[in-house]
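Hi L., both proteins are below.
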Amino acid sequence: MVRWVKHKAGTGERKCTRCTSWIKHWENHTNENRGQCSVYGCTNPAREGAHVITSRTSSKREYIVPTCGSCNPRSSTEAFRLVKGTPVAPARKCN
């Protein structure tokens, strides 16, 4: 279970052409609806798929999680906690 993550820098230009957006990519891979932002303590609706990497662990895996625009800043490198049980999607383009 992924609990602590931080934003992955330099992903703004990445696209998943099959899914049309990263939030749609997350929905397709998790079979979930986006609902609210997955950042612990935020109650805003999720509108974006954020590229994140695991933190507080030795393996730095990259995932997509649903966030609001405020919780998906382009330059933040601060670790944050996800809402418990948040499903994650692989951060790779679909074939």
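That was the first. Here is the second:
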Amino acid sequence: MTTESAGRKPGNGNESKMAANARKGVESSAEDIQDDFESLQDDVARLTQQLARLAAAKGGEAWGIAKDNLDDVMSGARSKGREMADAVGDVRDNLANAIDESLARRPYTTLGLAIAAGFIAGALWKR
């Protein structure tokens, strides 16, 4: 036995100081872990709020993009509708001119065709 170990007795002051220091270290570590956990909870809460704001902003942005796309489609449909109306008007005008010309050149043939068209339209109408 060394003189140092001989001088130590179980339960002397050095061991209780070491135990007290260890206890303080454990308590300090537990407090540090608790503080870190609370900090982590705060960070997660802030992140959740930021994600909610981002989702709202991006949702609004997505709505704006979709609305712009819808406006483009509607504008294109209006444009195509106008083109179709113009085309129908051109066909109507051409048909009217053709009928006028046919009446001037062949009045009886035109009358016969008109009667036949009326008869067909009437037969289809009854069904």
